[in-house]
From TrEMBL:
<dbReference type="InterPro" id="IPR019646">
    <property type="entry name" value="Aminoglyc_AdlTrfase"/>
</dbReference>
<dbReference type="InterPro" id="IPR043519">
    <property type="entry name" value="NT_sf"/>
</dbReference>
<protein>
    <submittedName>
        <fullName>Nucleotidyltransferase domain-containing protein</fullName>
    </submittedName>
</protein>
<dbReference type="Pfam" id="PF10706">
    <property type="entry name" value="Aminoglyc_resit"/>
</dbReference>
């Protein structure tokens, strides 16, 4: 973008979820923390370091969230590219990720993910056949921070099985309820047949 040198992709100083919630206070549109931070909100403590912070919104709500996040510059992320997204431009349908740059600090603060659901229904972005009432899959901390429940977070993490994903699964396994284990196992058999986690559920 003219006048602004590109920000290094690794220039992350992510907010804590509480700070994101404070900035989004009063927003009526659905949103929730996802990724590793969602698991730690569920645990009630931070179990490991987090290089970023991710939250999801519905596509038609993106302009409202951009307006609420004052002091941010927004960038569409896809295929390894991070491209400035002007205020008047909606992200293309192929884009499901927007990095939010703190203009003053020149640091990435939060990753806004676009999800395919509705106000009432959560839909898995990797398989629209997997869905749940939003009220059943989104929880809140005692402070009111919304987060996606652990079974859904682990379903996303199962695709990559990075070291941090294995740690997250190990930390969560004993705390999952019977219904959560059953749902996750069924979803893994749909999306990742033969996945090593299935036998442990």
């Amino acid at each position: 973008m003219a006048g602004y040198p590109p920000l290094d992709h690794g220039a992350w100083s992510a907010w804590h979820p509480r700070e994101l919630a404070e900035r989004l206070e009063g927003m009526q549109q659905p949103w929730c923390v996802v990724g590793g931070w969602a698991l730690d909100l569920w645990h009630g403590r931070q179990t490991r370091s987090h290089e970023d912070l991710e939250f999801t919104v519905l596509r038609h709500d993106v302009p409202a969230f951009r307006e609420c996040l004052e002091g941010m510059r927004f960038h569409a992320v896809g295929d390894g590219n991070v491209d400035y997204l002007p205020a008047e431009r909606q992200p293309p349908e192929t884009i499901a990720q927007i990095w939010c740059e703190d203009v003053e600090a020149r640091r990435w603060r939060v990753d806004m993910m676009i999800e395919p659901g509705t106000e009432d229904t959560w839909v898995c972005k990797r398989d629209p056949g997997i869905s749940l009432p939003r009220a059943d899959i989104v929880a809140r901390t005692a402070e009111g921070v919304p987060y996606l429940k652990p079974a859904a977070i682990l379903l996303f993490k199962a695709k990559y099985r990075r070291a941090k994903d294995e740690i997250d699964f190990d930390n969560a396994l004993a705390k999952l309820t019977g219904p959560e284990r059953g749902w996750l196992k069924d979803c893994l058999e749909t999306l990742h047949l033969g996945h090593a986690w299935t036998a442990r559920l």
